[in-house]
């Protein structure tokens, strides 16, 4: 099959930002019994230093998408560019060399059981031909970075799940990649360990300027560290955008999952509205001001104020006495204060 219409590239934009760009990605798996389209027409752009999450259920195509970025899976159509290098035109040693700029961490760690912690990290440097003395110094640097200096001589069987994933992260960073791909990196971990790994990834993102593209089926992961997110279903993106944009998008499925409001969508004799604010407005006393200004009883049916990755957001479901027409002034006041207002009933 010919190569058409698809491109992934990591390149500079006007602000000096490196991005991953995916256009029209398609990947089909074929067997004797038929074929399955794993990824079907996906477009995606990720800026330098961004943490971008792809969320979806098992079988949605997330892993295939991720593996196409570093050419572990070749797409059916298109080209892949990292900087000025076209990966789809490379094979063998040239492709392996080009992959050094893209690190990857795995769900089940993929560690070598016969090697120590230090040996597992060093292996990634051996592959790149790094001299022994330089390898030793870099391994020590990486183990300190992920908090495993004292476990350098331990073997994988002697480590907890969280420690194993830290080794995987250190190994992925060995060649100083620009981009880190994360394939369900926390799904095999308990909630407390998941939180520690997410804190580490966010710290690495900030300290090293890493661009992170991660896939997950866990909404908690997206809430904790992602600036942008896409919902993947049946090989396609059903919805995508920054978290801040999605929270303000009426009817957003992702927003409902990230920040469920709760409370009834309708009440007799009342106007039920969903109100979303972000940034500094999230902590402003907007509901109290509304009640005072319009001398009305405002019922809070659900919602809260939370910090989602780098976005401070407040979402509430409110009940105002009377019809929407009766509350025209109140709704306009909320909008004038920067709120996204959606009338539920």
Automatic annotation (TrEMBL):
Gene Ontology MF, one? ATP binding
Q: Which residues form the ABC transporter domain?
A: 20-259
Its GO biological process annotations read: amino acid transport
Record InterPro entries = AAA+_ATPase, ABC_transporter-like_ATP-bd, ABC_transporter-like_CS, ACT-like_dom_sf, MetN_ABC_transporter-like, NIL_domain, P-loop_NTPase
Give the Pfam families listed for this entry.
ABC_tran, NIL
Report keywords, A-Z.
Answer: Amino-acid transport, ATP-binding, Cell membrane, Membrane, Nucleotide-binding, Translocase, Transport
* Record flagged with keyword Translocase: yes
Q: Which PANTHER family match?
A: AMINO ACID IMPORT ATP-BINDING PROTEIN (PTHR43166), METHIONINE IMPORT ATP-BINDING PROTEIN METN (PTHR43166:SF30)
Instruction: State what protein this is by name.
Output: Methionine import ATP-binding protein MetN
């Amino acid at each position: 099959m010919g190569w058409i219409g698809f491109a992934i590239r990591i390149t500079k934009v006007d602000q000096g930002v490196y991005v991953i760009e995916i256009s029209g990605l398609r990947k089909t798996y074929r067997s004797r019994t038929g074929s399955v389209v794993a990824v079907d027409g996906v477009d995606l752009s990720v800026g330098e230093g961004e943490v971008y999450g792809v969320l979806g259920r098992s079988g949605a195509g997330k892993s295939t998408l991720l593996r196409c970025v570093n050419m572990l899976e070749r797409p059916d159509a298109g080209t892949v560019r990292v900087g000025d290098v076209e990966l789809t035109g490379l094979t063998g040693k040239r492709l392996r060399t080009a992959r050094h700029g893209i690190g990857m961490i795995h769900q089940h760690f993929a560690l070598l059981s016969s090697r120590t912690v230090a040996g597992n990290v060093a292996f990634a440097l051996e592959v790149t031909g790094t001299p022994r003395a330089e390898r030793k110094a870099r391994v020590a640097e990486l183990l300190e970075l992920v908090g495993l200096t004292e476990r350098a001589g331990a073997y994988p069987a002697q480590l907890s799940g969280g420690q194993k994933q830290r080794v995987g992260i250190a190994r992925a960073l060995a060649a100083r990649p620009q981009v880190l791909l994360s394939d369900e990196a926390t799904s095999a971990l308990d909630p407390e360990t998941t939180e520690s790994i997410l804190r580490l990834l966010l710290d690495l993102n900030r300290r090293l300027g890493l661009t992170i593209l991660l896939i997950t089926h866990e909404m908690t992961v997206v809430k904790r560290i992602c600036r942008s997110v896409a919902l993947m279903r049946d090989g396609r993106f059903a919805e995508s955008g920054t978290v801040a944009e999605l929270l303000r998008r009426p009817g957003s499925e992702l927003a409902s999952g990230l920040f469920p409001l709760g409370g009834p969508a309708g009440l007799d004799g009342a106007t039920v509205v969903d109100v979303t604010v972000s940034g500094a407005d999230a902590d402003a006393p907007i509901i109290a001001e509304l009640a005072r200004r319009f001398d009305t009883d405002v019922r809070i049916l659900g919602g809260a104020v939370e910090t989602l990755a780098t976005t401070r957001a407040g979402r509430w479901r409110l009940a105002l006495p009377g019809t929407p027409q009766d509350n025209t002034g109140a709704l306009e006041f909320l909008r004038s204060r920067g709120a996204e207002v959606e009338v539920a009933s």
